[in-house]
Input
Amino acid sequence: MIGQRAGGNHATRAMIGQAAHRILWLVALRCRLLSAGPSWWWEMPKRGKKAEDVDSADELEATEPEAKKSKKGAAKGPKEKVVEGPILYQDPPNKLTSPSGQKYTLKVTSWNVDGLRAWVKKKGLEWVREEDPDVLCLQETKCAEKLLPPEMREMPEYPHKYWACAGAKEGYSGVALLCKTEPLSITYGIGEEEHDQEGRVITAEFPSHFLVTAYVPNAGRGLVRLEYRQRWDAAFRAYLRGLDARKPLVLCGDLNVAHAEIDLKNPKGNKKSAGFTPEERQGFGELLTAGFTDTFRHLYPETPHAYTFWTYMMNARAKNVGWRLDYFLVSTRLLGELCDSKIRSQAMGSDHCPITLYMAL
Output
């Protein structure tokens, strides 16, 4: 009996020792997990989402800068994290005179509406009437002329309306140009069959200049159309140079490229994304060296956080995680007549915001 009791006591002590050891091990493991950062073991890594339409700029990534790392490579704990609000772009007051003091005589607004019928329902026309440009240029209308909403047909302030639609793809691409003054002539496309099937360009000739509105093709998800985009860039550049040889021009629209790192929120994370590849940026640079100037960067060369597109995903617009894809370019010899180039980032109704140009022509 005595031997059995002694053996039982010994077993009990062993079990208590094992339990104590297990508790200490669990406490140590919990401390190690907590020191590695909050809740990492159950959170799935976040991935950028993309839209379905490969022609739409929605597929551009809305990634944000990576979290800072400690020297050991572990994410810093909550106490070390600095929470900052989004830095929004503030459109400065309009400059209504040229460098020589001439008052503007031409006001042009350009807007990628991401679907004309949806944009009308979102009260885009109300904003246009308040802005009151002389010429309104729209891109990505996604609407055949026969399907135009009555609100667009019944705009008496713009009696001269011109539409270009994708021939084989209804509800795809498309541009429009609405004028208060009748142009001398209107042409559609750039004169090359390969590039004129998707309704991407309208050119209006006026006495002193050409006005071109364009919706440049996107390189596509996975860059499947990058080679085509490069062919487009070369052909479009040649077309614009031909116009410029006759009279100076104004080009506006969604050019589907962020030219410099300042033109998007996260350049490091998007070097292989459509709209920021070296090939697309080089194509834009070659357009500038061909005799054209980016009016916004000419006037505001160092202004950051100035974007015109934000994906609908990940609350990107509220965070101002965006891209500058919409431009006014002018023949460089028109810079003496340039008054201002605006980004109306507060205007809603699309995943792009409108831009407005003031010229003293």
About this structure: Residues 1-7, 29-54, 64-75 have pLDDT under 50 and may be disordered. The radius of gyration is 28 Å.
